Design the sequence.
């Protein structure tokens, strides 16, 4: 198990539990009472820690190395998944995966960022940072969904769009902007969920939807706390302060009206019980899709556009 800095009290308890279990096994002793007492203490400590998380701690959780990624959720939620590749223009971007899946009889097109589960795979997936061809692949799949009247599900988990020179040469900003205008007018339901990091245009490139959800321990912002700290203070040392100032948690996004609901995670985070997290996410997605399919197409598109037109606060100055 991997423990974050604020989870150190849990790490000590797990070490104690492991020692007691080892002694009981080696000495053939009945230490069930001590084991049960420690397990209860672990549950209580975990509940206490996770009921009072700061913005920075939620950012850390969203990046937890054991946290489930898009392909895990797809495998757990769908009985059959056919991955589709390429943007039909340049190449296949491994940072964005997508294809046709079956959610309990409901055919959908699922698109999402994929970071990779180990060092080699993270490099292969470019750490979840998509190039223009990734967003163009996503748009191709959305148009495929529209053609066959399949709802679209987007799972967001990226530290941002790839900022390399070659990405800019191939039209990174145009690719993201094109996705936004096309998603706003797509004739099929779009349900989006932030399952990890939701950074800047890299997230919004597949994040415009009729329903937008965030898992409990995720973040959604125009910039990461570290980058914000480096710009304002010329140092990463103020990242915790930046995380609080940015108001990037799911609770903040819900209060601003940017998302529609928060999907609760199992106690200890999605990585503590990924199978349960996949079940919870699947229920939320199916419910949202069913509600959206009952709406008239034009009514749904109009509501989607109005949803984004009403985000934000402004004043009209009259002279």
Sequence:
């Amino acid at each position: 198990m991997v423990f974050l800095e604020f989870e150190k009290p849990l790490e000590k308890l797990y070490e104690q539990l492991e020692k007691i279990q080892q002694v009981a096994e080696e000495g053939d002793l009945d230490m069930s009472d001590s084991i049960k007492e420690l397990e209860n203490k672990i549950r209580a400590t975990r509940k206490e820690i996770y009921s009072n998380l700061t913005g920075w701690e939620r950012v850390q959780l969203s990046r937890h190395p054991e946290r489930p990624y898009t392909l895990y959720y797809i495998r757990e939620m769908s009985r059959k998944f056919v991955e589709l590749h390429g943007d039909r223009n340049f190449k296949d971007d491994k940072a964005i995966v997508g294809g046709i899946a079956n959610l309990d009889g409901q055919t959908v097109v699922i698109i999402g960022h994929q970071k990779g589960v180990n060092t080699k795979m993270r490099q292969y997936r470019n750490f979840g940072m998509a190039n223009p061809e990734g967003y163009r692949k996503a748009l191709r799949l959305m148009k495929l969904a529209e053609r066959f009247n399949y709802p679209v599900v987007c799972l967001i988990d990226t530290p941002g769009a790839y900022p390399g020179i070659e990405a800019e040469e191939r039209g990174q900003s145009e690719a993201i902007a094109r996705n936004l205008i096309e998603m706003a007018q797509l004739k099929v339901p779009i349900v989006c969920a932030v399952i990890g990091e939701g950074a800047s245009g890299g997230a919004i490139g597949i994040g415009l939807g009729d329903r937008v959800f965030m898992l409990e321990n995720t973040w959604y912002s125009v910039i990461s706390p570290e980058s914000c700290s480096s710009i304002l203070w010329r140092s990463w040392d103020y990242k915790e302060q930046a995380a609080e100032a940015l108001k990037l948690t799911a609770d903040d996004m819900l209060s601003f009206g940017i998302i529609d609901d928060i999907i609760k995670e199992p106690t200890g985070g999605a990585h503590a019980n990924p199978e349960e997290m996949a079940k919870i996410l699947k229920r939320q997605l199916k419910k949202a899709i069913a509600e959206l399919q009952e709406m008239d197409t034009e009514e749904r598109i109009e509501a989607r556009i109005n949803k984004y037109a009403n985000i934000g606060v402004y004043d009209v100055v009259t002279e």
In short: The CA atoms of residues 159 and 199 lie 5 Å apart.
